[in-house]
Specification:
The chain has three helices and nine strands. Helix content is 33%, strand content 31%.
Length: 206
């Protein structure tokens, strides 16, 4: 009987020791995982900041850079990113509707305009709060503007559309790209309108 009690006592000590060790081990693993997650997040933040800054690295003055592939815009004060936001550029399937790459200048700043036109995809007649043209060619005028649902109903854009439209989709798609202009959410377009000047450089890249 004494041996059984002794064995039970030894077993209890072993079990307690095991559970104490296991709990400590699990706590250490959890702490290590938390530290790794914090480090990874910090590294990702640094990488994102470096990538963001790199877009304005070559700018020497006030410049607007639009990446068609990224569907994104960066406003540069020299090499510093003053602002950035998703955009929607032109439909790539149609020569008259794609956004031409190149370097241009803002040629005007207007508010409360109606942009009307037509091409092989049909007609449009859209009210915009802000309009900043930067190019005129054989197909018409190209510029920066907002296109809100409040002003244009079903033809307008939700903020979630910007940066998320397939610019290679046909005009018949439910969410097609622009007719060549660079479209922005209203708040972002207001910021750009207030910041940019006539003569500000516009660099459209692929």
């Amino acid at each position: 009987m004494l041996k059984i009690k002794l064995l039970i006592g030894i077993l209890a000590v072993v079990l307690v020791g095991y559970f104490v060790y296991n709990r400590h081990h699990q706590t250490t693993i959890t702490q290590d995982a938390q530290k790794a997650a914090v480090t990874a997040k910090a590294d990702a933040t640094k990488k994102a900041a470096a990538e963001l800054a790199s877009h304005c690295a070559g700018a020497t003055d006030q410049e607007i850079i639009v990446s068609i592939s990224a569907q994104h815009l960066w406003a540069c004060d020299g090499s510093t990113v003053a602002y950035n936001n998703p955009v929607i550029t032109g439909m790539e399937l149609y020569p008259a509707d794609l956004t031409p790459t190149g370097t241009y200048k803002i040629t005007g700043k207007l508010t409360d305009q109606t942009l009307a036109g037509s091409d092989s995809t049909g007609h449009w007649n859209d009210f915009v709060n802000y309009w900043m043209p930067f190019l005129y060619n054989q197909y018409g005028s190209y510029g920066f503007h907002d296109l809100t649902q409040a002003a244009n109903g079903a033809n307008g854009r939700a903020d979630s559309d910007f940066g998320n439209i397939d610019i290679n989709a046909p005009y018949t798609a439910a969410k097609h790209a622009s007719h060549g202009c660079v479209e922005m959410p209203l708040a972002a377009m207001k910021w750009l309108y207030d910041w940019a000047s006539v003569g500000t450089t516009v660099n459209i890249v692929s």
